[in-house]
Amino acid sequence: MSSAKYNRVVLKLSGEALAGSLGFGLDPEVIKSVSEQVKEVAELGVEVAVVVGGGNIWRGKVGSEMGMDRATADYMGMLATVMNSLALQDSLETQGIETRVQTSIEMRQVAEPYIRRRAIRHLEKKRVVIFAAGTGNPYFSTDTTAALRAAEIEAEVILMGKNNVDGVYSADPLKDANAIKYEELSYLDVLKEGLAVMDSTASSLCMDNDIPLIVFSIMEKGNIKRAVMGETIGTIVRGK
């Protein structure tokens, strides 16, 4: 085993991160950069699971605000995450990294159904596993999916890669020049102050299961490896 601090991690990517500067859809350069960074970590012997959002294609909340049935809008968002997951799988396998996509909604022609023991076995065989279609239920975000899957597979940390910030701030740093960057927070701090890290359901789940979270910029190459090696980057959220 390498000198990595963590042996099994969940990497959470927002759909917006995969859109890059395009703002919508998939940016091939961003996907290639992410897959190269994941490869760098996988080659250290670290077991990597990935949870991908779908906001670059469709957001259930937006559909609901347009008058669409919320459950229907959320299911559409789950399908968007599958599209992103397949794109990432293709890029990873182009890099020579064996990858499996598991979906919470069965679609056997394109991916495996999510089975916890099978996912763990893939990880033990050093395959990258991408969890798609959220939890399979409406009203839950992919942040909650990341927290749930991390607990289920006993991951040691969740790595949350962002595309427009390099950590957790007291306010939106793009709008407030006086926003303060935090180096370390507790989940209670996040919940009390309403910080835009992850939704309250996901934060509570991480807190209850004692899963630390590292928030960092995915756009800077090598950051996933730095986080896995235990270097101080971004913001770490842990404990109570």
TrEMBL record:
Enzyme's top EC category: transferase
SUPFAM superfamilies recorded: Carbamate kinase-like (SSF53633)
Highest taxon, organism lineage: Bacteria
Gene3D superfamilies, alphabetized: Acetylglutamate kinase-like
Record's subcellular location: Cytoplasm
Catalytic activity: UMP + ATP = UDP + ADP
Keywords: Allosteric enzyme, ATP-binding, Cytoplasm, Kinase, Nucleotide-binding, Pyrimidine biosynthesis, Transferase
Residues engaged in binding UMP: G54, D74, T135, G136, N137, P138, Y139, F140, S141, T142
EC number: 2.7.4.22
CDD domains linked: AAK_UMPK-PyrH-Ec
Pathway(s) per entry: Pyrimidine metabolism; CTP biosynthesis via de novo pathway; UDP from UMP (UMPK route): step 1/1
Domain Aspartate/glutamate/uridylate kinase stretches: 7-217
Residue ranges of the region described as Involved in allosteric activation by GTP: 20-25
Primary site of residence: cytoplasm
One MF annotation (Gene Ontology) recorded for this entry: UMP kinase activity
Activation and inhibition: Allosterically activated by GTP. Inhibited by UTP.
UniProt: ATP binding residues: K12, L13, S14, G15, G55, R59, N163, Y169, D172
Record's subunit section: Homohexamer.
Family from the record: Belongs to the UMP kinase family.
Known role: Catalyzes the reversible phosphorylation of UMP to UDP.
NCBIfam families, A to Z: pyrH_bact (TIGR02075)
Name of the protein in its database record: Uridylate kinase
Source organism (scientific name): Peribacillus deserti
Gene that specifies this protein: pyrH
